[in-house]
Amino acid sequence: MSYSNKQGYQRHTEYVRQPKKKRSCLTTFLIMLPFMVIFGFIAAISLNVVRNKQPRYTTVKEEPLSGDVGSQPVEIPNRVITYLLLGSDYRPDEGTHTDVIILASVNFKEGKVNLLSFPRDLWVTIPGWEENRINAAYLYDGIELLYETLDYNFGIRPDHYAMVNFEGFIKTIDALGGIDVNAEIAMEDYCKFNEARWCRVEPGITHMDGTTALWYARARYNTSDFDRTRRAQEVIKALAKKSVSFEGLIKSGKLINTLGSYVETDMTSSDLLPLIAKMGSFTADGAITSYRITENEAYSYYTYSGANVLIPDYDAIRLIIDQVLWISTP
Questions:
Q1: E-strand stretches of the chain
Q2: What angle do the packed helices 25-40 and 225-243 form, to 10 degrees?
Q3: DSSP symbol at 250
């Protein structure tokens, strides 16, 4: 199991990571397109898997017990490749938090994809640093520390990653002429872009520009982090569906320029070949299943500082991870 050599704790206000050098526009578009195709079919064919039991809550203001979790490494089948899809909130004065964390597990033998969303407030051990929200790992020491955090807490280390920041997210959606989001339930929350400073989305299809879509995916004043992961998936589905539509392909030139400026990844064109070869299988009925960590796998907790975080039930999450990686079946 990998650990960071960095000792001690540096506050995020003292340690600010700068964005890495971006890849070429065309390479970035080719890298992202397979994932857009995959996500584009989730709305129609995916199953949102949630284990059934009563959620747990606590309002006791105590720090979680410290100590090593030391999850055993997961033995991932050879036919499975894992991709970490990230949405980052980069700010010059604060650095980069990965507020969207989705593990995409691709089974090339069966031509299927499993997706698992991690809530940003999940309270985990960041190796060599401290206990904190999972979205802080990248802030402290980049993608390698996020990999180590997932490895240490959950026994998984993704093969590749791709990350887009939220400014690029807005511009990508606007470049496509907006997206049609299929909202599962009604949602209302504080917003900054209308006179009332309050926005509401009804169940069903709602057309959104980039600013509205980002608000819908991230808003949490009136909702939970669990609900936020669901809405983020709805927005990603709508974005992918629009990207591979006829209108989206017509606007692909503008989209390439946008993606090239805002996407960070370690993938090359050769890494895409297995995905492209199986693209037809991924669009088949029942090929994609999405999973979320919910109140059934984590409970709300208040730290001494008053921060509301989510304490993971590692055993429950491990059961989901085993399903996501085809180590066991539901």
A1: 48-49, 57-61, 80-91, 95-107, 112-118, 123-126, 130-133, 160-165, 179-183, 187-190, 198-201, 204-208, 263-265, 288-292, 298-302, 308-312
A2: 110
A3: H
User: How many angstroms separate the CA atoms of 294 and 28, rounded?
Assistant: 32
pLDDT digits (tens, 9 = 90+) for 164-193: 877 878 888 888 899 999 998 999 998 888
* CATH node for 25-173+262-324: 3.30.420.590
CB 322 within 8 A of CB 328: yes
Beta strands 112-118 and 95-107, pairing class: antiparallel
At a CB cut-off of 8 Å and minimum separation 6, what does 118 contact? 101, 102, 103, 134, 229, 293
How sure is the predictor about 48, in pLDDT bands with cuts at 50, 70 and 90?
A: very low
**Span 106-154, pLDDT tens digits:** 998 888 888 898 998 999 999 999 999 999 999 999 999 999 999 999 9
